[in-house]
Amino acid sequence: MDTVIGLGQAGCNIADEFAKYGQYKIYKIDAGDNIERADWSWASYGISGEINENEEGGKYEIPRLNSPEEYEEKCPDMRATFRELKGEVLFVVGGSGDISGASLRVLEYLSHCDISVLYIRPDLELLSLSKSQHEWTTFNILQEYARSGVFKRIYLVSNSEVEKHLGEIPVIGYYDKLNEMIVSTFHMVNVYNHNKAVASNFSDPDNINRISTIGIANSDDGEKKLFYSLDKVEELRYYYAINKKKLEEEGDLFKKIREQIKSDIKTSYGIFATSYEQNYVYTVAHTSEIQRQKNEKNT
Question: Among candidates 266, 235, 247, 245, which has minimal Cα distance to 199?
């Protein structure tokens, strides 16, 4: 994707992480405490609010409202803002924030682009009943839209799953570490999607498999660690980023990789030469199944 649009605090923080790589055009939309509801004056930019020009890529601030329903009802008109966008757009949102109620309205103004959604699920056990119910609604609606083809794809990521793979994380910088892991993995998958592999059998995912997640794998034994525990994974894609010298000298490496990815489901791989001393493996999983995992508060 060329453009990343973050909505809400979680979405904006992820967008900030993407901005570190330099090749993405970044937009951030969030509620601002200093914006008066009765004075939404930033109409010249096509959005009723204000822009903080000191932010990387600009941060579009709209008034802080009282509920997801109010954010949906009063979402500013962003047609002028996004009219010139084209190509691939990644829309990033965390479902528990009230401002995520504006998601579908914002996405309407991106309908001329190829939209993928990166949906960040918080720790569900820590949500209040109202937040949990709102998150559950947003989670399901965005999946349904992706499955129906309105979006190209939705990538689900669970903060709790990412934390498991990172191990112990200090309180200060906790979300920074999670976001860094999520974005670096997503970015490297994007990089290798645009580079030539030394060897690969990649094919496009089946058209119905539009619900996805990303993850990493162990280069020694192939054990994968997905960032969301998908029910009924139907396709897996592996990206092997291997030191070039190792690719030139290890005669059994190709056999080892093929053994690692053997599966009863559709699996493909790409092997890429790198100058890194350490080897990395990234993975993407796809399914057509709407994910129904939820918190006990929703039952």
Answer: 247
The residue type at 62: I
Question: Can you tell me the distance from the alpha carbon of 142 to that of 199, in angstroms, rounded to the nearest whole number?
Answer: 35
- Summarize the confidence of residues 73-90 as an average pLDDT: 90
Identify the pLDDT of residue 43. Answer: 38
Task: Report domain extents, the chain.
Answer: 3-151, 205-287
Residues 169-184: tens digit of each pLDDT = 999 999 999 999 999 9
Rounded to 10°, the helix 8-19/174-193 angle is 60
* Two tokens, residue 150: 């309105």
Please enumerate in sequence order all residues whose Cβ is within 8 A of that of 232, keeping only pairs 6 or more positions apart, or say none: 287, 289
Give the three-class secondary structure for 274. strand
Distance in angstroms (rounded) separating the CA atoms of residues 233 and 196: 26
Closest CA to 138 of 183, 179, 91: 91
Say which CATH topology domain 205-287 has: 60s Ribosomal Protein L30; Chain: A; (3.30.1330)
Task: Tell which residue, 286, 293, 236, 284, has the closest CA to residue 121.
Answer: 293
Statement: the pTM of the whole predicted model exceeds 0.85? yes
> What is the percent of the chain where pLDDT is above 70?
89
The candidate with the shortest Cα–Cα distance to 132, out of 22, 295, 21, 299, is 295
Q: Are 268 and 201 in contact (CB under 8 A)?
A: yes
CATH of domain 3-151: 3.40.50
Rounded Cα–Cα distance for residues 57 and 47 (Å): 15
Q: What is the model's pLDDT at position 58?
A: 66
